[in-house]
Amino acid sequence: MRCPDALIGVPTGPHFVVVDLDLQHEDAQRWLDKYRNVIPLTRTHTTRSGGKHLLFAPNDKVKCTAGKICKGLDTRGHGGYIIWWPACGLEVLHGSVLAPVPGWIIAALNPEPKPIIAPRTCVSAPSSTSLRGALGVLARAKEGERNHALFWTACRMGEAIAAGTISEQQGLEMLIATGRQVGLSDHEIRATARSGFRR
């Protein structure tokens, strides 16, 4: 047999996603100690290094990450793979169970964006030029920046609404038109607009 010591790699994403704990890292050990009692019962593999692979039901919000939650904790979703340690005879717990990924893990992997903090000048009535500039910030936002830019632009719109320069409906229509161009959903735009207008 060729390559008798070869390990078996299994793709992640379509059938399950994985939280990969390298317990040689103290941060990963502390994370497991902290959350052990709230991690749902789910299929768990022991790895050759003494770590754990926690397998969960597929979830598109779990991407392939390395150390995003803490050092020694990686995740694998679409496009990733794991070594299938059971093929080497290592321990499997709860083999018939694939629990949903807990919401608190999803939240840790997808934190709420922090609003952009930009220098503000005291103006009584924002001009159409300044509104176009604010919308330009949103229009030029790249992936990973869009939610920040949307909230910041909504705040500028809120200032214009408060000053009587535009109506709330006009501000919302401008945000929707520009937000759609960068791939934001109407629901997301409306929710963020409400927050920005009130700020």
**Radius of gyration from CA coordinates:** 23 Å
| Major sheet size, sense and barrel closure | 6 strands, antiparallel
Beginning-to-end CA distance, first to last residue: 68 Å
Q: Indicate the low-confidence ranges by residue numbers.
A: 118-126
Order of helices and strands: EEHEEEEEEHHHHH
Strand content: 5-15%
Number of alpha- plus pi-helical segments: 6
SS-derived structural category: alpha+beta
| Rounded average pLDDT | 88
Count of DSSP strands: 8
Main sheet: strand order? 5-6-2-4-3-8
- Helical percent range? 25-40%
Principal-axes geometry comes out as elongated
Short characterization:
The chain is of the alpha+beta class and 199 residues long. It folds into two domains: 9-109, no CATH class; 128-198, no CATH class.
Structure description:
The protein has 199 residues and is of the alpha+beta class. The chain has 2 domains: 9-109, no CATH class; 128-198, no CATH class. Helix content is 37%, strand content 14%. The chain contains 6 helices and 8 strands; from the N terminus they run ββαββββββααααα. It has helices spanning 26-35, 103-109, 128-139, 146-163, 168-181, 186-198, and strands at residues 9-11, 17-21, 44-46, 52-56, 65-66, 73-76, 81-83, 92-93. The strands form 2 sheets. The protein has a 6-stranded antiparallel beta sheet, covered by helices on one side. Strands 1-7 form a two-stranded antiparallel sheet. α3 (128-139) runs parallel beside α5, α4 (146-163) crosses α6 (186-198) and α5 crosses α6 (186-198). 28% of the residues are buried.
